[in-house]
Model the fold of this input.
Amino acid sequence: MNQPLFLYILLQLSFLIAPFNMSAQEDYKLWLQYKKVQDTKIATNYHSKINGIVALGNSETIQTAIKEIQLGLSGLIGHQITLQKNTNTENMLILGNQSSLDEAVLKNVKSEFDLINNEGYIIKTIQLKNKKHILITAKTDIGVLYGVFNFLKLLQTNQQIENLAITDSPRINIRMLNHWDNLDRTVERGYAGFSLWNWQKLPDFIDQRYIDYARANASIGINGTVINNVNANALILTPQYLEKVEALAKVFRPYGIKVYLTARFSAPIEIGGLKTADPFDAAVKNWWKEKAAEIYARIPDFGGFLVKANSEGQPGPQNYGRNHVDGANMLADAVAPFGGIVMWRAFVYSEHDVNDRAKQAYSEFVPYDGQFRNNVIVQVKNGAIDFQPREPFHPMFGAMPKTPLMMEFQITQEYLGFSTHLVYLPKLYQEVLESDTYSKGKGSTVAKIIDGTVDNHKISGIAGVANIGNDINWTGHPFAQANWYGFGRLAWNPYQDSETIAEDWLRMTFSNDEKFIKPVKEMMLESREAVVNYMTPLGLHHIMDTGHHYGPGPWVSNLSRPDWNPTYYHKADTKGIGFDRSKTGSNATAQYSPEVAKIFDDVANCPEKDLLWFHHISWDYKLKNGETLWNSLALKYQEGVNQVESMNTTWNKMEQYVDQVRFKEVQMLLNIQHKEAKWWRDACLLYFQQYSGKELPKSVEKPTQTLNYFKSLKFPFAPGN
Amino acid sequence: MNQPLFLYILLQLSFLIAPFNMSAQEDYKLWLQYKKVQDTKIATNYHSKINGIVALGNSETIQTAIKEIQLGLSGLIGHQITLQKNTNTENMLILGNQSSLDEAVLKNVKSEFDLINNEGYIIKTIQLKNKKHILITAKTDIGVLYGVFNFLKLLQTNQQIENLAITDSPRINIRMLNHWDNLDRTVERGYAGFSLWNWQKLPDFIDQRYIDYARANASIGINGTVINNVNANALILTPQYLEKVEALAKVFRPYGIKVYLTARFSAPIEIGGLKTADPFDAAVKNWWKEKAAEIYARIPDFGGFLVKANSEGQPGPQNYGRNHVDGANMLADAVAPFGGIVMWRAFVYSEHDVNDRAKQAYSEFVPYDGQFRNNVIVQVKNGAIDFQPREPFHPMFGAMPKTPLMMEFQITQEYLGFSTHLVYLPKLYQEVLESDTYSKGKGSTVAKIIDGTVDNHKISGIAGVANIGNDINWTGHPFAQANWYGFGRLAWNPYQDSETIAEDWLRMTFSNDEKFIKPVKEMMLESREAVVNYMTPLGLHHIMDTGHHYGPGPWVSNLSRPDWNPTYYHKADTKGIGFDRSKTGSNATAQYSPEVAKIFDDVANCPEKDLLWFHHISWDYKLKNGETLWNSLALKYQEGVNQVESMNTTWNKMEQYVDQVRFKEVQMLLNIQHKEAKWWRDACLLYFQQYSGKELPKSVEKPTQTLNYFKSLKFPFAPGN
Done:
């Protein structure tokens, strides 16, 4: 029986080509793959430098650190590194906090301890009795755990570990995720499946995912998590649910992660049986005090409350003629005795306020500066509108020197293509963090405002709205894991370069092969500008389709609130396009420091990337490239599409460096992104063309569908809505 | 620096004890673990008998078979078994359908081909030129794939593979899963997360899970899937969704799995723009014909429609004064030209019908016998009420000889503790399948009714309401995987013993170690009786709490429909308890064959396990054990609790045989089950005690809470509701 040879080969190939394991293992492991180091020279060297582990202390956190280092080393080096009782043999890896170290060890790191804070760590090669060892230490056990993860990172990224002398500390106190998770496990703006929290099986069933979630967060220094939606349900504060929250807090505790909850302002009515939630009402104050005591009895290290009040229909102090200060301080007093904090969101805009929505949060909150309790921190979105592909930094940053402001970034891609589009967000975060508010003169960057250095605040914080769900790969898109990772890295140190972070993530997640790193890193770094170009170039914003925000909807103009309509934001007409927020318009520019306002106000000096955010510009206006605004707009949309095309080209060359499952996932997703980038280009240009009345430049591809076709598209079950 | 030895040991242990990998890999792989055969003797023997693979044919299905055999063998044997061009060397594994075999091979299996049907397979050791080989063949490519999975099963269960001579064929044509999945990805009665189908990313993103779902189903012979909820949404029939369904059908096709959809009867109005959905209306008939043509243009092997009509608020032909025959036949005519079928559900009961709900489906459908088109099959739940822990077989089985009846089992545990309780359902399925309807005299078992042998039907079918969700382990409870597996095995052969199936599943999923198999198999086999005992002993039924059906609610009596109230079903009063369905009562017994009715009618002969299903019995009535009904009821509840306790004891001894993650998962879940079994016992006994007015027997533990406490429990976000 003879098979034609071609068939035989074809079958052999088919086995090579098709992904075929029942495994999404790599996907699940995130950046903690701990695969064996490929370069055998490096691997051997690592092994020779790490003969054993000497662990000091016995807290849950230290035990966690030991397990992690053993797990990591056994994977990376390929040998189980065992625990030793002492440092008699050389090349021990010594783990322990400051108090656990004896003099012989301590004198090696005296000066380093002055360089770190309570969560910082030291990784240093030391000599004991002429024997070299590597010491990982810190002032606290959690610092030791952070040191362990960062030591493992050195190996994961194939760096040398001779004569190590590393000290590092987080610049921001509160580094947290905000989960917009509902109790029915749907996730508002969630695109990676559904909530991780299986409320029905809690408290008695601890999903392995809870542990791995904590590991992943600890590995990047995240130390807090708000596990429920800011559009809150009071039931989370009932004993039935607090028992479940307590179980999660117990899982997260050894990893240095505090649990926080959102507080529904009307909870005293809904679950407390009171007639009012007025923050001045004695019974209400007392109810919150007792509720706080009840929570802390279960969770002694409970972090505190996050509150969305009088915003988008949520109840708040204004329902009772009180203001945000009254509400925030009342809750702050309830948690203060237990060391808790209140994070009060500044994301407010009123249907009764006819002013530019971009101005409202500033107008409402800035006058309150100095009136909040010292355990209140005001949480401000990075921009004045709502997590757009690009926004100028929020004018509140730098404007409330007496109030600690907490940054709220969005990791989930509500307005950036869900978990379908590859967009590397740390690039966006860095742009915001580096923006100069000039609040205390040049160099008063947003980073320095939120880490408290400009105004010397004791508490500082940064929150990322999580993109995590119960998809096997956690984030829906394999590359969306980089946004979770990158957020954590910037939360630890907001001065880091997003390029370094991208490279670390790629090495830890995929491969250390330069032929992979270089092109894929470039692809990531370009991805954010690409999405701006094919969705909202030149300062356009909020022209996504209604409700779900999936795809273009610049034509939407019929929503109950004017400031929910895309037409409110682009203001396209036959004269031109853009929102005049300059002196001649809403004068939102006046909310910035004079140095900044001056630049934004002046059409000629306003950065073109923000042009239509601040100005209504004639279609014929010439940009720096010499092209008219209309042509430039069209060319930007085309450029975005071209960028996604080249992302595809890059990725298609990477098959040999990536496991089949992830290679194909990314390939399929990039294809969809390319399709949808064209959809954005065609829909927006056809729509704006009605007003410009001009032809598309030659280098812009002609739309393949009519405007009516694009308007007709409906997505009744778009996720996250 | 010296560590106290105890601490050193403690730390070493902590690493052994705590599960600590970021992996739920085993969980995900289901019964297709393909782990290396532990017994080296057996492994060596397997390797010696399989030197290579000679694959004939080049269909997608054959390529799939090749990939699966290579994946399986490389795992089980630990060596990659390569493809060979011919059988010149001995011990080849030859794969190919009948037409691909040459004479030399064919003459070895001439007689076997007469023993199998189109989906059957042959696994036989043959001789070619004095060289031994193993042949896996069939009449069709899908038969070959089934043969491959069953050959792998031999290895997975460590059976010998000398002189093989196996022929096997499925006894039932249509072996399918029903997914009650909604387009928003919630799953009605789903307890394993949310829907697998990511509609937003379809059609262009093919989740690896879709492929692995198909592999798992093909491995047990499932050949159809209804991917959306019987409480249907017409949007699934729009081009926007059909394009996505087409993509799934393409993934499933090589695995022999046909896609079916539920048809919302009012679709012609909702998405067709018609004024009516009257099955006699020409425009309606035409709309369905064109819709069918549209679907088949995309999916040539589309299976057909599943319809829930005029049931629990779903629209149907009765809205237009027509009947079920009119509706079913109209749809049947639409799909007939393409070879499609219509599965019409018999799960109907009317709020306007004051008769015993258990009688209504029979009363309505039996008169229609013989009036349905020959491509209509009526889908009947295993019992007359609704997927209870135990029900007598549905009286419709055997009562409609001219109509093929399709069995509908529920795999998801709506009334059996969700995915939290370990209940091995094949035991329940077997009990139903072995029930004798006496429709054509003794031996007319339900199995013989549904496989068509009693009444010589051309089409036969069996459906299982899936327990599959996007949890990493697919089914929420690791042991719930056995219910998916077991359903498939019984769908292939409804005469199999559930004990054999449990043993195969345990060996494939966990271990071949007898010290594990024996006790855990016993635990599984006992689990179904345990849940009956602690929930609904002695024929009690439908006393679960309202809506979500989680936990006990025998007191519920205030629902809009009387036949939704638990009190309707148990009818407890001071005289006694139970639903009199005998001659003296609703006379539901008369719907069974006289031989069966006679037994159920007679209190003395009625099986005690069904006693309160058919009779209202005095609290003092003496059961065969000599105890009063009240005491027996209480003792049964206690027995259920004791059984779960011993399941815990058994499992706790199994740690050494199971990976840490799954061991702990099952351990935690069994603990919850034990808690909830007590909850059931205490709540039900306290409630019924109000009527019996009697003390609990000594051997029954005293309740630790009051009846009011149990009544006060609320589960606002219980899953699946």
Observations:
- The mean pLDDT of chain A is 95.
